[in-house]
Amino acid sequence: MSLERVNPAELSPPTGFSHAVTATGSRLVFLAGQTALDGAGRVVGETLPEQFETALGNLLAALKAAGGTPADLARVTVYATDVADYRARAPELGRIWRRLAGRDYPAMAVIGTVRLWDEQALVELDGFAALD
Asked: In sequence order, what DSSP letters do the residues of the chain get, joined into one string?
């Protein structure tokens, strides 16, 4: 499997994402949306960074169970109930991402949403990965 991050010079410099990712592999893993649910199905964390860390950890746990690593992520979509808060906390969220997933950034988007499945959830992440 190989992923190539593509960041054209004519686009604004990416910060914490890649503009495009090409994937060559024999297996695709589609990752369901993950929020800050613990093993008992309860939302944990009061703040966006706390919930982001748990949601990302859940996404990466699902990926690992499917045989992948963070470097295999080709695309991640973040759904946030408060985009202004997400933007304000972007540096902290970036540190969490790098600590858990490293610096091989997938193509990403942040989508504002009124609410998520669990009312207490502030953020949800889904995505897909390309594996050998």
From this structure: -EEEEE--TTSPPPSSSBSEEEEE-SEEEEEEEE-SB-TTS-B--SSHHHHHHHHHHHHHHHHHHTT--GGGEEEEEEEES-HHHHHHTHHHHHHHHHHHH-S-PPEEEEEE-S--SSTT--EEEEEEEEE-
